Structures are given as C-alpha cells and as structure tokens.
C-alpha cells in the first residue's frame, strides 16, 4: 500500500531575479480561499517584503483560475465556520495585505477572480489579465456585502457609477472590458510571463527605496480611509454571514434555482 501523498501547500513561493512569484495553489477548487490559504498568503507577502533579495512580488493562481472567492463548502458550514474571515487582526493579515507591504505587488489574473478573489485582484499595484480572466464581485448574488473595503477601493479605480453597476449586478467582466474600464493595465496570452517580465525590469532598474517611498506616497492620503472602510465592512460581513440571504443563496445554488430573497431590512 502506497503512503498517502502529502497535502499540497495552499500557497507556493518561488523567488527568482529579485521577484517573488506567489501562487495560490488549490487548482481543483479554482483556488477557492480558506482561512489556511489566507494565513499562508499573508505570510508570503510579509516574507517577500522582508527579504532584501526581493524587490517586487507577482501573485497568480494555479491551474485555470485566479481565485474563485471564499470556499463555498466553508460558507455552507454556517457563520461560526466563517469567523476566521472576519476576525479583528492586523491589516497585513487580511486578504488586502498586498496594499500593506512596501514592495510593488503585481496581480497576474489568469482566470476567474470572483468574490474575495475579485478583492485580491484589485489590491495589486499593477494588474495584468489573461484573455480567460473574469472579474466578478458576486457578493450581491450571495446575499453578502461589499467585503474588505472593496466599496471604497473599486470606485477609485473605475469611478463610482461603474463600481456601483458591477457591485449591484454581480455580473462577470471579461478581460477586454476590464482593460477598457481600467481594472487591468494589459491583457496577455502568457499573463504570468508578462507580469514577471514587468517585475524583473522594475526589480533590475529601479531603486527599491524609490519604489517603497512612491508606494507610500500613493497611499498616504488614503490609507486611513481604506482601513476605516475595511473595519466597517468586517462588521457588515459578520452580520451578513448570520443573515437569511446567504443561507437562501446557497440553498438555491444547490437546487439549481434562482434565489428568493426577502425584502431589505436596512433602513
């Protein structure tokens, strides 16, 4: 009898040419996010930031997806199973940690980026996409809220009305539209290759001190507002995890029917 294969690491890190390639690694689940993956991802970003041999980080997904969002099997376990997603913790422990480190972080979106994966994609300092990339907020279709400060971040990337349309509808945005509206800076068949080439050029020719200072300058006037938005969204997430709409959305999805949400309880 052969011994069981070891469980693959949920996040892989490969450092080459002063660039850390961070890969979300649950390809059989389209890299659906779990609390464990979140811990590994946050640590990978911190380690890259602390490594003097790393100047830039690139984040991508293994297989055909970038990140399909929080694992639905965890969502289905009920609100207590979701506490790890909304615990009060340091800013760099959250899925938005790419905005907290001092090195540039490039997102190489190689497939669907939905829900929490959508948020992670938006936290890149630069974002490239493959032709198969899809950006989907999805929250409204699950009876959830705009998570992890995305309601603050998205309008600053594409404008309030476009952000409202995407958040309200939860519809998918393909790579071509994403480039047109400013979600991504380029669409490439080999998106990881393109992101790594950009990162290597910056790592080779640009001052790490300049990069760190510029990143701080870009966010200095806005960090407090963003953190306040995250804090508010964490509280709203706790409420939405315990509300009836998420349960109805998951039941409807399992039954292959449209959800029957009740009226809004918001004043």
Verbal overview:
The chain has 267 residues and is an alpha/beta fold. The protein has one domain (11-190, 208-255): 2-enoyl-CoA Hydratase, Chain A, domain 1 (Alpha-Beta Complex), CATH 3.90.226. The protein contains 10 helices and 9 strands. The strands form 2 sheets. A 6-stranded mixed sheet has the order 1-2-3-4-6-9, with helices on both faces. Strands 5-7-8 form a 3-stranded mixed sheet. Helix 4 packs across helix 9 (223-241). The longest helix has 19 residues, at 223-241. The chain is globular. The mean pLDDT is 89.
Describe this structure in a few short sentences.
By secondary structure, the chain is α/β, with parallel strands linked by helices.
Overall form: globular
Q: Which quaternary structure do these chains form?
A: single chain
Gap between N and C termini, in Å? 62 Å
Average pLDDT, all residues: 89
Determine the number of helices (DSSP H or I, runs of at least 4 residues): 10
- Rg, Å, rounded: 18 Å
| CATH H level, superfamily name | 2-enoyl-CoA Hydratase, Chain A, domain 1
Low-pLDDT residue spans: none
Reported for the largest beta sheet, the result is: 6 strands, mixed
CATH architecture: Alpha-Beta Complex
Query: Beta-strand level of the residues, as a percent range?
Result: 5-15%
Count of DSSP E strands?
9
Largest beta sheet: what is the strand line-up? 1-2-3-4-6-9
CATH topology: 2-enoyl-CoA Hydratase, Chain A, domain 1
List SSEs in N-to-C order: EEHEHEEHEEHHEHEHHHH
């Amino acid at each position: 009898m052969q011994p069981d294969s070891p469980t693959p690491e949920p996040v892989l890190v490969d450092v080459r040419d002063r660039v850390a390639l961070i890969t979300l690694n649950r390809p059989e689940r389209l890299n659906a996010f779990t609390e464990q993956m979140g811990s590994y991802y946050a640590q990978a970003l911190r380690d890259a930031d602390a490594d003097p041999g790393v100047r830039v980080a690139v984040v991508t997904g293994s297989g055909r997806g970038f990140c399909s969002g929080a694992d639905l099997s965890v969502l289905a376990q009920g609100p207590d199973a979701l506490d790890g997603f909304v615990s009060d913790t340091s800013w760099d422990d959250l899925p938005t940690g790419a905005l907290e480190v001092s090195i540039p972080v490039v997102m190489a979106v190689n497939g669907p980026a939905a829900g929490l994966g959508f948020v992670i994609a938006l936290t890149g300092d630069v974002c490239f996409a493959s032709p198969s990339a899809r950006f989907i907020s999805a929250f409204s279709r699950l009876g959830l809220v705009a998570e992890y400060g995305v309601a603050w971040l998205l309008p600053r990337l594409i404008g309030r009305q476009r952000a409202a349309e995407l958040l309200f509808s939860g519809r998918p945005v393909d790579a071509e539209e994403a480039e047109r509206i400013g979600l991504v800076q380029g669409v490439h068949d080999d998106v990881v290759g393109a992101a790594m080439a950009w990162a290597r050029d910056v790592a080779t020719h640009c001052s790490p001190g300049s990069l760190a200072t510029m990143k701080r300058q870009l966010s200095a006037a806005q960090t407090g507002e963003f953190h306040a938005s995250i804090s508010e969204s964490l509280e709203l997430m706790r409420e939405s995890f315990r509300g009836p709409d998420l349960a109805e959305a998951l039941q409807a999805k399992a039954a292959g029917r449209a959800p029957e949400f009740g009226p809004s309880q918001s004043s």
